[in-house]
Amino acid sequence: MPNRIKRDSETDSPQESHTANGFLPLAEEYTDDVWSAGRSLLGIFAAGFGGGLATLIAWLILRHTHMPAFGGSQLSRAVATGTTVLLILTVMWLVVAYLGGSIPRWRRWISYLVFYLSPAGLVVTTTAIPLAATRLYMDGVTVDQGFRSQFLTHMANTTALTDMNYIDMPSYYPAAWFWMGGRLANLLGIPGWEVFQPWALVSIAAVGCMLVPVWQRLCGSLPVATAVALVTTSVVLVMSSDEPYAAVIALGAPAATVLGRRALSGARLSMLGIILFLGISASMYTLFTAVVAMSVVAVAAATAVFVERSLAPIIRLIFIGVASGLIALIVWGPYLWAVLQGRPRSGASATHYLPPSGTQIPLPMFSLSMLGVLCLLGFIFLVVRSQDRDVRAMGISLIVFYAWVIASMIATLAGGTLLGFRLDVIIALQLATAGVFAIAEMRMVGFDYFYPHMISPRVSRAITFIMVSLLSLGGISYAQNIPNKNADAIDLAYTDTDGYGERADRYPADSGKFYPEINNYLTGLGFEPGSTVVLTDEQNFMSFYPYRGFQAFTSHYANPLGEFDKRNLAIENLAEASWDGAGAFNKGLEELDWQPPEVFIFRDFKYDLAEDLYPNNPNVRFRGIYFNPDAFEGWTEKQIGPFIVVTKKR
After folding, report:
1. Domain boundaries, the chain
2. How far apart are CA 316 and CA 321, in angstroms?
């Protein structure tokens, strides 16, 4: 096991204090693997790049395999389980060897390579392999994945931070993850919707790998850092893999709570880390940014009042907020500028969602599972070790997370929520991370501490082997079930019709098989997808082709600048005008406050109008309205499958 050295400083610089980077058992800690600031930054970059590249290569290889559909065969489950077991056993063997004492230099470098890339391996074995025979990602293009696929499709079609649906409008939804996904799609030469799967896998794997050197710097132990990264990656793959841009932020949240504490105490490298985390996370997923930022504010207040008794932490907090805000402006700037110019906003309802999980406090420490045991140990650790500043910061942050969940429930009285149900994953990650440190300290403050004269080095090594083995077997038990826990989402990736009009399970495709023909017809008439406004309720068509929608599918993902409510009223007025003749209909189009649609895609000239029903659950109702076919006099109509495609003559 790592040496235990007395702490003498609270900085995070190894040059100032070799012992200030981790969680201490009784004022002592493990610091065998602390690197300098420069080597740590290099390690973080190398791990992220290497993990992402390795995952991309694995995905490219898996594309050329011929596995059966996940739901119709146990083959991919067997391969996923087998490779997961081999991965964890390899990590276990290297950890035992690494902790056993001096090892040859070449084996040490192999250990580093495996440890740093092991989270990527876990992403591949538990998620990429089950999805190997489909082009779609978790949940296919069902409900929310339809919006996300639409965003990626647009970002692959342009480098501008435009809205996922409306034309000539800056993005309201944080676009950084989708913009980078669009660039990967361009690099691979595939459509935006198709890059969803590889980009989700690559981004989660890259961040998971980066956690190893990050936690190595924070706690000083490479084996412990590897355990934290593997555990948190496993949890995210179960709880948040369908929303990968949120998952990558959730992965870094526990480390951010520690970085924030150290930054507030003046540690420069931690200051850089928390600024980058908050700035980048605000560019991808604002909810998790908000709760982590609130936790940093709470820690700053506690540090200023009870620890330093000065305004220095508050001044550092302001600097962190300004610097991270400047990073976020890269993505948020165009939208905020439009708001400052006075562009009208209305109709968006992102916070109008209250599922059953939003009415319960998440208490993962009481679930009868491996994760529940780990979270319970983590909770005990946060209480018992609260005298340590880093542990206390994690505990304060956990309180903030729970406070947000409770505030979200109360906010329902004001007509919305704070989406507190989405914090389940953040809370579980915080407790699970603390649980890994609890197990590490149980070993360090173990039999050899209480019975130093009875435990020989040989017995100590045996105890270490047993504890590492038990933790690894627990990890295998949890990780091998990741595909099963995601089975419904994976099945949808095989049963939904993709952008090529095919189903990955080889069953007959639904009406989506006519989408490619519709697109070919429109482009043949000279309509450019990126500049053509379409009115349709066929969300999946908009997910696969980068046409601009006159109306978003629901108000919950709609840009406030799009005025969803007013557009709904305008569509209904257009439908009513169509029954007064072609003249009234065309006049209604000319009087629209927005660029009118040039293409209509109907089923029987029907359009399903989405209406917000919050606080009901489900929170959306679709009400059918009908257009008069005779109102399209002078337009061109074509029947393609069950769809009627009406286009304006050019």
Report:
1. 33-133+170-489, 511-647
2. 9
